[in-house]
Design goal:
By secondary structure, this protein is an alpha+beta fold. It is about 25% helix and about 30% strand. It has one domain: Roll (Archaeosine Trna-guanine Transglycosylase, Chain: A, domain 4), CATH 2.30.130.30.
Length: about 160
């Protein structure tokens, strides 16, 4: 089958981001919720990200390290608590920058040899959408992507505005 290239003027404005171009990142609990509320703005990963839009999906798996933290982390966890939703897409963010971990920037956050992703412009989904998720970075199927946009008009508006 050939690719559809017809774009008649009467057609609805195509979304600026299509499902195949979207990227989802499955993040362990509670880190995903901490990202959703903007208290965690980095990721340490084995792979390079794609710059730009990134949806945060919360894993069903809990990072045990996170429950043994200090007072600061306890406060952050309390703030993020209402947004913890296992197996849901919970936030939209942007990957602003990344580099191979080294030196002062990454500190103890990202071990040497991994990639340090810098996230910004994070917004929570007002209506999180269920998804099983996958390890690491993945591409949503069209049904999931469409459901996110349909149930979260603010997200659709952000994508349409491109910022
Ligand atoms: Zn760094």
């Amino acid at each position: 089958m050939g690719r559809q290239t017809d774009q008649s003027a009467s057609a609805a404005t195509p979304p600026p981001l299509r499902a195949a171009e979207a990227r989802m990142l499955t993040v362990d609990d509670p880190w995903a919720a901490l990202e959703a509320v903007g208290l965690k703005t980095h990721e340490g990963r084995d792979t390079k990200p794609r710059l730009g839009w990134l949806f945060i999906h919360q894993s069903s798996r809990r990072a045990l390290r996170a429950v043994m933290g200090d007072r600061l982390l306890a406060d952050a966890l309390a703030a993020a608590e209402p947004y913890r939703r296992p197996r849901h897409v919970i936030a939209l963010t942007r990957v602003l920058d990344f580099h191979e971990a080294a030196g002062a920037c990454c500190g103890v956050l990202v071990p040497r040899g991994r990639y340090h992703w810098h996230l910004g412009a994070i917004s929570k989904l007002s209506d999180p959408v269920f998804a099983i998720g996958k390890q690491g970075l993945w591409i949503p199927d069209k049904d999931l992507f469409d459901a996110i946009l349909a149930r979260n008009p603010d997200v659709a508006a952000r994508l349409a505005a491109g910022a």
